[in-house]
Amino acid sequence: MAYLLKGVSVLGAAPTDLLIKDGVISDKTDKDAVVIDAAGLVALPGLVDVHTHLREPGREDAETVETGSRAAALGGYTAVCAMANTSPVADTAGVVEQVWRLGREAGLVDVQPIGAVTVGLAGKQLAELGAMADSAATVRIFSDDGFCVADPKLMRRALEYVKAFDGVIAQHAEEPRLTEGAQMHEGEVSTRLGLTGWPAVAEEAIIARDVLLAEHVGSRLHVCHVSTAGSVEVLRQAKARGVRVTAEVTPHHLLLTDELAAGYDPVFKVNPPLRTSSDVMALRQALRDGVIDVVATDHAPHAVQDKECEWSYARPGMLGLETALPIVLSVFGEQWDLIADRMSIAPARIAGLDGHGGDLTKAGTPANLTLVDPSASWVVDPSGLASRSRNTPYAGMTLPGRIVATFLRGEATVLDGKAVK
Ligand SMILES: [Zn+2]
């Protein structure tokens, strides 16, 4: 199937016609192409998420590879990296190949499995990193996300191991001894509410240690969900020294603050926790100036019983795939080059996903792209989301930017704002 996007604006440039044919951007013509009136729509390279929880295998009541893939396509994504904290844990070639195969079968986005760093995420013994790298899933990112690789000796060995195949260790930076029993950001609000705090230094201390380890080993480190102004300063210094470190920030840490915990609604419970408005401002600036490389969703679906309960019992995490671009648009406005870099080009580079984050103005670029209507706004209705879970912190909010269509290698996965399958 060929598509002709009439009058589309590529990254905000003057309207043009774009032909999608044989899976790529084409400079030929095709009189049989399906014509899409794209006047007023902006084409972006398909978004790439380096941090998604798809919950399969093990918690299919919260999400499956298929439902999460559909949510991703509807959010404008063409590739997502699936975190390893499934049940069983993705710590062997067998499990990562299973997730990879389920992604292929769903066929809505490229699902790139992330492998666990340690067996069972237990932080005791390195997992079979080489076997996962050599598997059909060709794993390049390894993470114990949900847990920190707290043991510095194991972290060093993991960094050394993945260097051989240019892999990267994605660290959930949380010194566990400093966050025992933590329920929210440690600060004025936690004191007022009487909840145990998660101090900023628990994140910053691990990032500081890990950039030094990465520098020592000469290997690649990626820092998950950076949430504090102090972390930004550590990263800024490390990058200035030439350390091979990249970092991500979530949409919710770019918008929401710890004041939201005051209502004790567990939908706002997340790890790392929502921080202060000065942290939010520092994260926005870091994303603008490139100290933080990418926006990653940390899409974390949870079943109703795990989320709609008392704050202290609720699982941390929020949905993110279907609202990420609208949140980024609401924070930064129509800065299309910035958005394309931080949400597609840079994440594709970090994950080694060739074919994503390509230049849509060049013939031959794989047709992985999404069409956004920046003038359309919509109200977030949890029951209308494609995710199997409902834990969005944005319920009832009016957001700018509607995803109209998404294409994966030239095949439509979303048309007229609806999933094709
Ligand atoms: Zn995490």
In short:
With 421 residues, this protein is an alpha/beta fold. It is built from eleven helices and 19 strands. The longest helix has 18 residues.
Features:
TIM Barrel; globular; 11 helices; alpha/beta; binds zinc ion; 22% strand
Tell me what you see in this structure.
The protein has 421 residues and is an alpha/beta fold. It has a single domain, classed as Metal-dependent hydrolases (TIM Barrel, Alpha-Beta Barrel). Helices cover 29% and strands 22% of the residues. It has eleven helices and 19 strands. It has helices at 65-74, 93-106, 129-134, 152-163, 188-193, 200-217, 229-240, 277-289, 304-307, 324-332, 336-351; strands at residues 3-10, 16-21, 24-26, 34-37, 42-45, 47-52, 77-82, 110-113, 141-142, 168-171, 184-185, 197-198, 220-223, 245-249, 294-295, 369-379, 398-408, 411-415, 418-419. Strands 1, 2, 3, 4, 5, 16, 17, 18 and 19 form a nine-stranded mixed β-sheet that branches. Strands 9-10-13-14-15 form a five-stranded parallel β-sheet. Strand 1 (3-10) and strand 2 form a beta hairpin. Helix 1 crosses helix 2 (93-106), helix 4 (152-163) packs across helix 6 and helix 6 (200-217) packs parallel to helix 7 (229-240). The protein is globular and about 65 Å long. The model has no long low-confidence stretch (mean pLDDT 98). The structure holds zinc ion (ZN). Residues 145-146, 172, 224-225 line the site of zinc ion (ZN).
